[in-house]
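Appendix B, example 12.
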Amino acid sequence: MSTRRFTDDLPEQNVANGVEAPSPITRLKMPRPSVENSRVPELARPVESVRQMEAMRPEEPRLPRGEAAGRMSGQMPRTLTQVMSEADEKVMQGDLEDFVPLPTGFDPLDGLIGGGLRKTELILLGGAQGIGKTIATLQIARNIAMRPDQYVFYLSYEHAESHLMHRLLCLESINPPEIDATDGLKLRDMYNIIVAQRAKKFMGRQAGAGSLQAILREHPKTAPALQRLLRYSDRMILLKASPAVTNLRAIKEMMARLADATGGNVTVFVDYLQKIAVHPERPRDENDKVTIIVEGLKDIAMTLDVPIFSIVAADREGLKSKRIHLFHLRGSSALDYESDIAIIMNNKYQILAKDHVAFNPYAAKEYRNWVVFTVEKNRAGRAMMDIEFELHAQHFAFNPRGQKVQQQLIDDKIIES
């Protein structure tokens, strides 16, 4: 199977692979594709072709982003004086992006990792299946996309773009970080609303538009969520990636286009790392494959000067463990070496010390909805720090206002307040 290059024109039925990402300078409005020829969710606003994305580049891009193409082909060695001169020029122009991290919106996690995500860094998020890795990652992507000057590129090897949109609508229904779950939407609730409204329209019992956006806008339980989602829908770019086709080269080509089109203000999210296609390379085993992938992602982050946030799956031995650590992730040695930040998620109830559970079993059960985020690697700060966040799984959201873990956890480890 041949790999489609991002430089090729995309057929209309695959328009969902690149939604509109207008430059903050040009503010171009792209035409919406016809519904008949597109499988994109109605809320998406895709470009018709990659050439349109190229046309969105500002005529005079910022200095550091204009070098993206040159970086991909390799840089010439420079003296320290030259590096300092370039840094001087950027600061004088008011370009302070290299000095200002992007907050994830999860507090106090941002404080532990130096304020948030930084350009050129590779951030990994690991944990067992069903712990909430995709929920946390999509919520962090949403938090960044809500900034008017930032874009996110979310590659999912697990879910279709429409499913991610539905998850975001459920998340927006409880409005993190305010968290009002009284009118919160579950997927089943939202699907029932859509089907019921379309059935009324089909039977002629109710007048009004029958489109998805019209249904969501007119229903009192979905209207607030839609309004919040539309605030950043133009800045969140979704791709249903293929584990057979979407390899590192394709990701790098897409990212180079997006970095230029957005002035470099884009953060990449990968769900998840081990499913990235590896070809034409022929890895010897799973560890060799993970090594190729993680080195490739780190190279993309360094070359294009963007942050990359990736989910990582645990190996079989890790899934049997009561508490998952970084060394339980598939290809852990390469992951530990290449990553700048590694965060591991565990269910709090599962990793409480036995003495604590035996002493107060009823209180301990309340921790089933809490997830412990452990910063196991941190190049720029302290590691092995545990913080906890409450999970609202039915609404696909965390309460981003967390706290340090106060209780004793297994591994004979006590976290001080």
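The chain is about 35% helix and 15% strand. Residues 342 and 377 are 5 Å apart (CA to CA).
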